[in-house]
Amino acid sequence: MDSSENSDTSEKVIAGGIGPERPSADTDPGRGRRIGIDVGSVRIGVAASDPDGVLATPVETVARAKRSGAEPVDLIRIAEIVREYEAVEVIVGLPRTLRGENGSSAKIAASFAKRLRRMIPGVPIRLSDERLTTVSAARALRDSGVRARGQRQVIDQAAAVAILQGWLDERSAVLKSAGDAGGTVVG
What is the enclosing helix (H) or strand (E) of 98? Predict the structure, then answer.
């Protein structure tokens, strides 16, 4: 088995049937808010879009549950946010390595997405490649004068915004392209 076959197989196993995705006119749920999630080992950054899916803004930072249980507090809170915002889609960042492989952080994010899917059936959960969003968010905040010390929650939210905004921008381009090709585009 060559390395590309192994990568594809491990990606499917890691994601539990949810692989890294890209926006598609065929699977787009249409107009509505989207939630972006940056899953970390200590905190989860959350962002939301406007109803038109144009702009991502920070929502909150949720502490990770320290113990696994039937319904971890972090998952419960994220599901509440999805319901509060009446989200039509949830985008979970998949932190792949620079080589495009799934490491331990990707496994954690995929597992989180899978468990969240069970809590909010009917709302599509997408995994989106988010290499270096936390690093980029920290750098952007530092460059704007925000000190990283004590600002981890802000960094996590900024990373969630970056994940979601990347998805929204690509979604807009995909839908515009589908519309230009004569397809029916909603949202």
Answer: none
CA distance 179 to 166: 20
Q: pLDDT tens digits, residue range 124-180?
A: 999 998 765 555 655 666 666 666 666 777 888 889 999 999 999 999 999 998 887
DSSP string computed for 118-162: HHSTTS-EEEEE-TTHHHHHHHHHHHTT--STT-HHHHHHHHHHH
Contacts of 178 (CB under 8 A, 6+ apart): 25, 185
125: β partners: 90
Distance CA 113, CA 35 (A): 12
Q: What is the pLDDT of residue 1?
A: 40
In angstroms, how far is CA 133 from the centroid of its own chain?
A: 11
pLDDT digits (tens, 9 = 90+) for 80-135: 999 999 999 999 999 877 777 777 888 899 999 999 999 999 999 999 987 655 55
Residue type, 110: A
Distance separating alpha carbons of residues 115 and 76, to the nearest angstrom = 10
